[in-house]
Amino acid sequence: MSLLEAQGIVAGYGAAEQILKGAGLRVEPGEIVTIIGPNGAGKSTLLKVVAGLVPMAEGRLVLDGRDVSSADAIGRARAGLAFMPQERNVFGAMTVAENLDVSGFLEPKAAKARAEAIYARYPVLAAKRRALARTLSGGQRQILGLAMALMTEPKILLLDEPSAGLSPKAADELFAAIVDLNRSGLAVLMVEQHALEALAISTRGYLLVAGRNAAEGRGPDLAEDPEIRRLFLGGA
Ligand SMILES: Nc1ncnc2c1ncn2[C@@H]1O[C@H](COP(=O)(O)OP(=O)(O)OP(=O)(O)O)[C@@H](O)[C@H]1O
Ligand SMILES: [Mg+2]
């Protein structure tokens, strides 16, 4: 049984035409699945639909065997889904500790112990727990975003461009942190602009173009696909 299955998703932002025109995907337990595609393809929209932040006009979403199509974002969080947005994914005016605390909203009584487990896993956050999030480096901020998503102890983690804006070294470290979480049993669905690097660590990948699935395959196979390399490297 798939951990997450999205079928025939049609969604948009009202007025104009739909952005997603029947996109779909699945994530099996233990997988890292990456969505790639050109700017404006609807990748972020797809993650937001799955997270329950953008309503879908058509489609079906099954999470861990439960049809959550009509559940709201909190309902989906309770069903085991956590989402790290592409932008504004930490509260800059709050400390690291406060960011973790508010992210434990589903079970406030467990928040303290979960934050301690996160400090043990990410010493960089422990060292900065009283620092305002806006004073963190880009890499530290993305680790905080990741840690905030972990505060609900999800079964599946949705990450929208976790490596965006990071130096190559910081991006590598972030990918290593994602692989590490995945090895400890967490399924990951991410969108990445660093397509080839992301596919290299992914079980499977999807290419989304203009709101529709355009290709699908094993991560490393997609990373070697000449058409994909042309799209993302402009040649080679
Ligand atoms: N809140 C919104 N209101 C109206 N239109 C939106 C909104 N958010 C996104 N869009 C539009 O939906 C389309 C898809 O946007 P989306 O952010 O999903 O693309 P993306 O594939 O994530 O792109 P990128 O690679 O640039 O992050 C774009 O045309 C965008 O302008
Ligand atoms: Mg996006």
Textual characterization of the structure:
With 236 residues, the protein is an alpha/beta fold. It has one domain: Rossmann fold. The chain has 10 helices and 10 strands. The strands form 2 sheets. It has a 6-stranded mixed β-sheet with strand order 6-7-8-3-9-10, with helices on both faces. A 4-stranded antiparallel β-sheet has the order 2-1-4-5. β1 and β2 form a beta hairpin. α3 packs parallel to α6 and α6 runs parallel beside α7. The model has no long low-confidence stretch (mean pLDDT 95). Bound molecules: adenosine-5'-triphosphate and magnesium ion. The site of adenosine-5'-triphosphate has 11 residues, from α1.
Ends apart, CA distance between termini: 38 Å
What is the share of helical residues? 25-40%
Strand order of the largest sheet: 6-7-8-3-9-10
- Main sheet, how many strands, which sense, barrel? 6 strands, mixed
What is the CATH class designation? Alpha Beta
Bound ions, cofactors and other small molecules, one mention each? adenosine-5'-triphosphate, magnesium ion
